[in-house]
Design goal:
The protein has about 180 residues and is α+β, with helices and mostly antiparallel strands. It has one domain: Gcn5-related N-acetyltransferase (GNAT) (Aminopeptidase), CATH 3.40.630. Helix content is about 30%, strand content about 30%. The protein has a seven-stranded mixed β-sheet with strand order 1-2-3-4-5-7-6. A hairpin with a 2-residue loop joins strand 2 and strand 3.
């Protein structure tokens, strides 16, 4: 059965929590230590209900299972779920700011089957329709190959503070959308 893309709803939150944990534990282990993964799940990785409320968060389903999720934002926050304390929810100006690509997670069972690409294309199209000409993200180390394959350029490394001296290395990436 083919995958189906749709906007996430508030009712998806419990399934998204499970998906995010499975994704991080199953797919991030090659780039991060167990200590980093545990701390990131507590403090950074999680459902961002603002993205869902804004109508900018997508899920891909396979029958009744959510295979992946991800979104884009017209708000300043670059990464982090609801539990992330350093949120900046003010709106961006499409004429000068880059939209944010946010919170991509794929269940390990559906990895490398086009789920992330499907969501990324939907995000890029929606951000362009909203008037944005640039996109940026804080990519996990294991996500870099996907984003690079879709034209994102690595700009600078960053360290997300997770507490107790633990940090999560990420890379700020960006893309200029083609003019239509």
């Amino acid at each position: 059965m083919p995958f189906t893309l749709r906007l996430a709803t508030a009712d998806d939150a419990p399934a998204l929590h499970e998906l995010i944990e499975a994704s991080v534990r199953g797919l991030q282990a090659g780039g991060y230590s167990p200590q980093q993964i545990d701390a990131a799940l507590r403090g950074v990785f999680g459902v961002d209900t603002q993205l869902v409320a804004d109508g900018t968060y997508f899920v891909v389903t396979d029958d009744d299972a959510i295979a992946g999720c991800g979104g884009w934002s017209r708000r300043r926050t670059l990464y982090g779920g609801d539990q992330w304390a350093a949120r900046e929810d003010s709106l961006l100006d499409p004429a000068r700011d880059a939209a944010k690509i946010r919170a991509f997670f794929v269940h390990p069972r559906f990895a490398r089957r086009g789920v992330g690409t499907m969501i990324l294309r939907a995000c890029e199209s929606a951000a362009a329709a909203a008037g944005f000409t640039r996109l940026e993200m804080g990519a996990t180390l294991t996500g870099i190959p996907l984003y690079r394959a879709h034209g994102y350029i690595e700009r600078e490394p960053a360290e997300v503070p997770l507490g107790n001296g633990v940090t999560l290395p990420i890379v700020r990436m960006e893309k200029v959308l083609p003019r239509i």
